[in-house]
Design a protein that fits this description.
The protein is α+β, with helices and mostly antiparallel strands and 133 residues long. It has 3 helices and 6 strands, in the order ββββββααα. Helix content is 17%, strand content 26%. The protein is elongated, with a radius of gyration of 17 Å. The mean pLDDT is 78.
């Protein structure tokens, strides 16, 4: 697993490689809480138009400037699930919320595309042209 401090330096656009050093993709996002020093994992896209995969922190090996090496081979990486970006905030409804409001929430839910990285931003990050956040 990655050094507890080194994950803080990972940035979108960095190269991700497998156990043999072959490129798997690029970092789209780092998940965790830097204030609490919690590293959850990475969002890695294998192509500009591909959906990113979620790589748990336990699968992150060596981190060097610009490159993250995983403890996975290509087949294991390809078998990983799609990354679902967490909501930036959640709405907690009081117990007094109306039945109509609760029914709408359970039927409509939230839009899963609401927090996805946009195509233009993804291309800019992939090419190293995006401004760092």
């Amino acid at each position: 697993m990655a050094d507890p401090v080194s994950w803080l330096m990972i940035e979108p656009g960095w190269q991700v490689v497998d156990t043999r050093g072959e490129e798997l993709g690029r970092i789209e996002a780092v998940t965790g809480d830097s204030n609490a020093d919690i590293f959850d994992g990475l969002s890695v896209a294998s192509g500009i138009l591909s959906r990113p995969k979620y790589v748990p922190a336990e699968q992150v090996g060596e981190i060097t400037q610009g490159t993250v090496a995983l403890t996975l081979d290509r087949a294991a990486f390809d078998a990983l699930g799609e990354y679902d970006e967490p909501a930036e905030s959640i709405d907690v409804e009081p117990d007094a919320a109306s039945r109509r409001e609760r029914a709408e929430e359970s039927v409509l839910g939230t839009d899963p595309r609401e927090h996805r990285v946009g195509l233009v931003r993804r291309v800019a990050e992939w090419l190293g042209l995006a401004e760092r956040r």
